[in-house]
């Protein structure tokens, strides 16, 4: 089995989870409702947990230990999409990102539950219930606010249009697509993208939101090969602050 | 007033106040949790939400993010029919009177409060034509030796249950011990810190 190809897949998944988990955790204490604050924080924590599980698989494949991978790399060594590192603005953007990202995440893990790479298949089965809640949460909120008031609909619409090109960056093809597909590790980004579009269309159709024609959108690529926005490094600096002050700290 | 948190930007106080619009807030929904398969559902508290489906979503994390459980359900507070609340040796069922059936029978879930200040527990289901008849039938079918201080009757169709497909929502909870305060081992950390100081 091709380890380079699998590592590439694991790194981009793990980095997406870590960076978005951190971004979403920035809402802790600031959520729009007490109950939603708790729910969004829990899901952010789940994402960090998923990144740990993926970094642990990487460690078993010979990479450094999870904390070293997570906290000591520079921005250009990260493989997350620019989509996940964009700063939070208002809650509408964070909800739209949560919806677009978690839909892709749940589908990716669903595909991976059939993977020939056993550790990933097992992880995919383990986190299925968590992801079911994440997508249930996202879909319910999008349906609620996407049909509620003129203000909520127009805010979500604006965020949706802003977010979509970045979200398409999730499916940036890697150098290893055919290897992963041939070895039955993963169906490939193209197949995932098609499933994702279908699911996004299905949920948006139940709201008063409008999806632009996919053909008019240009995906924002680059994150997978370390080309990031100016927003990633400050996030990494904040995330690794404690470790840099006291490398022996436990928390 | 400026916040110590740089992310908090507060609007300036203008000095103009006006009365708050009455009931300008979400309603409440009652949350019931099943700790283990086969155990009765128990009332755990309320969440605020705009509707039943949203309340289910918010209840799941508010009440089941920490302790292991297998299922939840929610109901609009306005759909909970409540008996009198009794004290000491007085059983709430002493105050339930016979009610004649009045039309089509539907299912009601019955809940008992066994101790003041504790939570209501699911006792069983009765088929009745209205909430008062449900309480009356419960007194015949579900009343036991145990002292009951309060009885709830909820029309089964008003409840948002967990779907069969969604029972895996709580599968990874046993792995989330880190959400317990005890997992931080604060006492141990403090102890080793104080020992470090003595050196």
Any overview of this molecule?
- The complex is a heterodimer of chains A (251) and B (199).
- With 251 residues, chain A is mostly helical.
- Chain A has helices at residues 3-25, 34-60, 66-71, 82-85, 91-112, 118-126, 128-145, 150-168, 177-182, 189-204, 232-239, 241-245.
- Chain A has one domain (3-245): Ferritin, core subunit, four-helix bundle (Ferritin, Up-down Bundle), CATH 1.20.1260.10.
- Chain A contains twelve helices and no strands.
- The model of chain A has no long low-confidence stretch (mean pLDDT 96).
- Chain B is α+β, with helices and mostly antiparallel strands.
- Chain B contains three helices and seven strands.
- The two termini of chain B are 44 Å apart.
- The A-B interface holds A 26, 30, 33-36, 38-39, 42-43, 45, 49, 126-130, 132-133, 136-137, 140-141, 144, 250 and B 7, 26, 47-51, 53-54, 57-62, 65, 166, 168-172, 176, 179, 189.
């Amino acid at each position: 089995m091709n380890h380079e190809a699998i590592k590439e897949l694991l790194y981009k998944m793990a980095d997406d989870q870590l960076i978005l988990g951190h971004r979403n955790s920035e809402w802790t204490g600031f959520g729009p409702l007490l109950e939603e604050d708790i729910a969004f924080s829990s899901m952010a924590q789940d994402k960090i947990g998923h990144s740990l599980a993926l970094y642990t698989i990487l460690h078993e494949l010979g990479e450094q230990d999870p904390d070293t991978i997570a906290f000591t790399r520079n921005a250009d060594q990260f493989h997350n999409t620019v989509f996940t590192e964009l700063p939070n603005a208002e809650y509408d953007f964070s909800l739209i990102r949560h919806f677009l990202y978690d839909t892709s995440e749940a589908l990716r893990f669903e595909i991976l539950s059939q993977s020939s790479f056993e550790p990933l298949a097992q992880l995919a089965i383990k986190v299925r219930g968590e992801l079911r809640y994440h997508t249930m949460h996202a879909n319910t909120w999008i349906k609620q606010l996407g049909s509620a008031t003129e203000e909520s609909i127009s805010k979500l619409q604006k965020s949706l249009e802003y977010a979509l090109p970045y979200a398409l960056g999730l499916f940036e093809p890697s150098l290893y697509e055919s290897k992963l597909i041939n070895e039955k590790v993963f169906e490939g980004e193209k197949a995932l993208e098609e499933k994702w579009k279908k699911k996004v269309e299905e949920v948006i159709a139940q709201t008063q939101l409008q999806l632009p024609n996919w053909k008019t959108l240009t995906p924002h690529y680059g994150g997978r090969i370390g080309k990031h926005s100016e927003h990633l490094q400050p996030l990494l600096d904040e995330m690794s602050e404690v470790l840099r002050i006291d490398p022996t700290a436990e928390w | 007033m400026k916040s110590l948190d740089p992310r908090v930007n507060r609007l300036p106080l203008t000095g103009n106040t006006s009365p708050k619009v009455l009931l300008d807030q979400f309603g409440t929904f009652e949350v019931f949790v099943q700790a283990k398969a086969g155990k009765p559902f128990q009332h755990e508290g309320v969440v605020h939400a705009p509707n039943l489906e949203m309340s289910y979503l918010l209840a799941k994390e508010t009440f089941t993010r920490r302790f292991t459980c297998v299922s939840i359900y929610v109901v609009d507070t306005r759909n909970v029919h409540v008996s009198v609340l009794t004290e000491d040796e007085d059983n709430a069922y002493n105050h339930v009177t016979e009610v004649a059936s009045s039309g089509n029978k539907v299912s009601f879930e019955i809940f008992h409060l066994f101790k003041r200040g504790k939570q209501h527990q699911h006792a069983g289901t009765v088929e009745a034509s209205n909430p008062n008849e449900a309480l009356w039938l419960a007194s015949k079918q579900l009343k036991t030796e145990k002292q009951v201080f309060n009885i709830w009757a909820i029309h089964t169709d008003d409840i948002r249950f967990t779907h069969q497909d969604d029972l895996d929502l709580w599968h990874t909870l046993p792995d989330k011990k880190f959400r317990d305060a005890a997992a931080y081992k604060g006492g141990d950390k403090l102890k080793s810190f104080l020992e470090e100081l003595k050196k």
